[in-house]
Design brief:
With about 475 residues, the chain is an alpha/beta fold. Helix content is about 40%, strand content about 15%.
C-alpha cells in the first residue's frame, strides 16, 4: 500500500514553497513533461496493458503530448479502465495545495473563495498540504441515476442552516469533478449518462469551468477528463451527444488481442489458478493455446453477437475454471500433481455461457455453439503441433485393434503405462510435453493427441457415462 504521508522535507507554508523554487503548471503540462521523460528513455508509460504497443500506445502518446482530453472507444474487456487508471503514474508524486482546500487549490492561484480569503489573511504563512498522485484521480461509472449534483455540485442545506445566504459560495458542496481539480477525472461507460447530464460537462471540457444552480461564480478548473464508451453501433444503451464528443481532443479505439500469444500473456498475467493444499497444477502450453483459441474463434463466429464483444475475461475465467476442474479431479483421485486435460474442457460451459451472447433465436443452441468452439479450438491447436508421419503411424497402430479409454476417473499412472506400451504414441507426445515427464502432463498430452486424431477423422470416438473410448475407424 502506498504511504500517503508527505516527506518531512517538503514546504509547509506558502513562503517556504516560494523559496523552494516550486513552479506551478497545468495538469496537462505536468503529464506531458513526465510522458516526454519516459518516451525519450524508451520506457513504457505504464505496465500491465499488453498487446497495444504498436496500435493504441502511439495514439495515446500523441494525445498526451497534445494535451487532449480522451475518450476510449471499444468493447468490454479491452483494458479501457485500466489505461485510464494507469495514467496516474504520469503525475508528479506529490502536489502542493492550500491546506484544507476541498478542490486542491493551487497555492499560487487559488480559485475557491475559502482559499483566496485564507491567502489574503495569512500571506506567506498560509499552510500548505501535499497530495499524493494516487489521490488525484477520480472515477464515476455512468448510470442513469447520475445527477449534476453528483458530478458538479449542489447547495449544502447544512451550511445554509448555519446562517449563510444561498448566494454565498461557501454554501456549495462540490461534486466529483471539482474535487478532482488539478488531477484526472474518468467517466466509465459515458453513453449510459443521460443526455441532459452530458450537457453539464460541456463547460468543463471547453471553458474549463463549472456553474452550480445559477450561482454567479466561476471556478476555472484544471483537469484532464477521460471517458470510456462502447462503439457507436452498440446503441442499445445510449449515445454520446455530438457537442460533447466534439470537445474531446482525441478518440482512441481499443481492441482485443490480435494473436494467440498476446492472449496467453494476458491470461497468465490476470488469471489466478487455484492453489489448494498439496495439489500442484501444471498447465501445458497446448492447453493454454486451446483456451486462447476458444476466445479468438468466438470473436470470429457469426453465431456470437460481436457487438457486445468477447472479453479477454472469457479466457481468464476459462483457464481458472479449467484448472479448478483439474484440481477437483485430482482431489477425488488422491493425486497431488495434476494438469488440465481435454476431458476437463466440458466444465468451461459454466464460465463461457455468461460471457458470450449467442446470436440465434433457437432454444438450446448455446450448448451446441460452445461445443463447436471447443472442438474447433482443439483441432486448430492440434494441427499446429502435429507431425503427419507420427500421426499416420499412430492411427495405423489402432487398426490392429487397439482401444484406449480416457476419463475423469482414470489416474495419470494408467496413461503413463499406455505410453510405454505404444511407441508410436510416445513419438506423438514427446513434442508436446516440452521435456516435462510428469505423469499429469503426459496424461494431458495423450488425451490431446487422441482427441485431435478423432477431430481429424482418423479415430472413432464413443462417449458414455464419463468415459471416452477411442478406436480405429471402421
Amino acid at each position: 500500500m502506498t504511504d500517503l504521508t508527505a516527506p518531512a522535507n517538503l514546504a509547509r507554508t506558502l513562503g517556504q514553497l516560494r523559496a523552494s523554487g516550486w513552479k506551478s503548471q497545468s495538469v496537462k503540462e505536468e503529464i506531458r513533461c513526465n510522458a516526454v521523460v519516459r518516451i525519450s528513455h524508451r520506457e513504457q508509460l505504464f505496465s500491465g496493458v499488453l498487446g497495444y504497443e504498436e496500435t493504441v500506445m502511439p495514439q495515446l502518446e500523441n494525445a498526451l503530448l497534445a494535451g487532449h482530453d480522451i475518450v476510449f472507444l471499444g468493447e468490454r474487456g479491452q483494458a479501457k479502465t485500466r489505461i485510464m487508471r494507469s495514467l496516474i503514474a504520469l503525475l508528479d508524486e506529490w502536489m502542493p495545495i492550500i491546506s484544507g482546500s476541498e478542490i486542491n487549490d493551487d497555492p499560487y492561484a487559488p480559485v475557491s473563495r475559502q482559499s483566496r480569503e485564507l491567502v489574503a489573511r495569512q500571506g506567506d504563512a498560509t499552510p500548505i498540504a501535499w497530495v499524493h498522485r494516487s489521490l488525484r484521480y477520480g472515477e464515476k461509472l455512468a448510470t442513469p441515476d447520475t445527477s449534476i449534483a453528483d458530478l458538479i455540485g449542489e447547495v449544502d442545506p447544512i451550511k445554509v442552516a448555519e446562517g449563510r445566504y444561498l448566494s454565498d459560495e461557501l454554501t456549495l458542496h462540490y461534486g466529483l469533478v471539482p474535487r478532482c481539480n488539478r488531477g484526472i477525472f474518468a467517466i466509465n461507460e459515458l453513453p449510459d449518462l443521460s443526455e441532459r447530464i452530458q450537457v453539464g460537462l460541456l463547460n468543463v471540457l471547453e471553458e474549463r469551468d463549472i456553474q452550480v444552480r445559477g450561482y454567479k461564480i466561476r471556478l476555472p478548473l484544471d483537469i484532464v477528463l477521460l471517458a470510456s464508451a462502447n462503439p457507436e453501433d452498440y446503441t442499445n444503451r445510449g449515445r454520446i451527444i455530438t457537442p460533447l464528443k466534439d470537445r474531446f481532443g482525441s478518440q482512441i479505439r481499443t481492441h482485443y488481442p490480435l494473436d494467440i500469444a498476446t492472449e496467453i500473456a494476458v491470461v497468465r498475467q490476470e488469471s489466478r489458478p487455484p492453489s489448494i493444499g498439496p495439489v500442484k497444477v501444471r498447465i501445458p502450453a497446448f492447453m493454454e493455446e486451446i483456451i486462447a483459441t476458444i476466445s479468438h474463434l468466438a470473436r470470429a463466429s457469426n453465431k456470437v453477437n460481436q457487438r457486445s464483444g468477447v472479453s479477454v475475461r472469457l479466457s481468464t475465467s476459462n483457464q481458472e475454471l479449467l484448472c479448478a476442474n483439474a484440481v477437483r479431479r485430482a482431489l477425488h483421485a488422491g493425486e497431488i500433481d495434476v494438469a488440465p486435460r481435454v476431458s476437463d474442457l466440458s466444465a468451461l460451459a459454466a464460465s463461457t455461457s455468461g460471457k458470450i451472447e449467442i446470436d440465434t433465436m433457437e432454444e438450446g443452441r448455446d450448448g451446441q455453439v460452445f461445443e463447436q468452439l471447443v472442438r474447433g479450438a482443439v483441432l486448430q491447436v492440434f494441427k499446429q503441433h502435429s507431425n503427419n508421419q507420427d500421426l499416420r503411424d499412430l492411427a495405423d497402430a489402432f487398426s490392429d485393434g487397439v482401444v484406449v479409454q480416457t476419463g475423469d476417473d482414470i489416474p495419470s499412472a494408467e496413461y503413463v503405462a499406455l505410453l510405454e506400451s505404444m511407441p508410436t504414441l510416445r513419438a506423438a507426445v514427446t513434442g508436446l510435453i516440452d521435456g516435462d515427464e510428469s505423469p499429469a502432463v503426459i496424461a494431458s498430452a495423450i488425451e490431446f493427441v487422441l482427441e485431435g486424431l478423432h477431430l481429424s477423422n482418423r479415430l472413432n470416438k464413443d462417449a458414455t457415462a464419463g468415459r471416452t473410448v477411442y478406436r480405429a475407424k471402421n
